[in-house]
Amino acid sequence: MTVRDALNSALAEEMRKDDKVFVMGEEVGEYQGAYKITRNLLQEFGEKRVYDTPITEAGFTGVGVGAAFSGLKPVIEFMTFNFAMQALDQIINSAAKTLYMSAGQISCPIVFRGPNGAAAGVGAQHSQCFAALYSACPGLKVLSPYDAEDSRGLLKAAIRDSDPVVFLENELLYGQSFPVADEMLGDDFVLPIGKAKVMREGSDVTLVAFSKMVGYCLEAAEVLATKGISAEVINLRTLRPLDRDAIAKSIAKTNRIVSVEEGWPQCGVGAEITAVAVEDAFDHLDAPVERVTGADIPTPYAANLEKLAFPTVEDVVRAAERACYRSK
Fold it and tell me: Which of 3, 56, 67, 142 could bond to 135 as cystine, CB 3.0-4.6 Å?
């Protein structure tokens, strides 16, 4: 099953299950979605459940937040999370904080979803990872799926959740196919929010990542195995609340950790993982924490420079080797 089909089926099933769920965003209806995630939803559910909006993120995000306050369950699609910067006030000041500021009287069951991070050849303003920004905000839950299982199970969980959820997908993964188990296809299949998944067991070093970088870590683990290094790969799935126990448990086994992300290094997700390693598992560390991140620059447009701005499998391998004192 492709990630695209996993997301589409999750949306359709939750809309059939609960008539309070509706979809809103640019080109989600007549055009079937910019990336076809909302394919056939307008035909099945009609214009009162699938709303095409003008190009006004602040406007339709605010409408969605208000609908959530009134008891509906909106799923707001951003054509890219770069465009969601227009709606940060609605997401962070309205959706994330109102439950607290109303003393628990007004909840906001809403999902903000769309592609996050770099695609290819779209320049600095359309190539940003917002994982660290959103995961720093109390009141939000932040999910970032990797494969079809993640995408289907986490999106269904996000829609059913009573809190605002930021759902960070990756454009380059939409068309990628993954094997799926039969139980994953059931209407009631959901994954728990706040729980990471060990994708590969290992004993020498932990590789921890989210979204597309999980695939890079799995590839790196294969390369490392040929060099006699056994790497454990953790798929975070949820960035807020972060599964600190899974990280600490893995460090206790491997004694080394490498965090991998596409985002910028300063105040990034890897910086938080480093803090977790030091605060929760310091006595188990046999080497400094290694971070693999995007370059600390606006993303270049030129293809040759863009390639140098983001992590590669080779970068992950080298970082793991340094952690294991196999190279400098």
Answer: 142
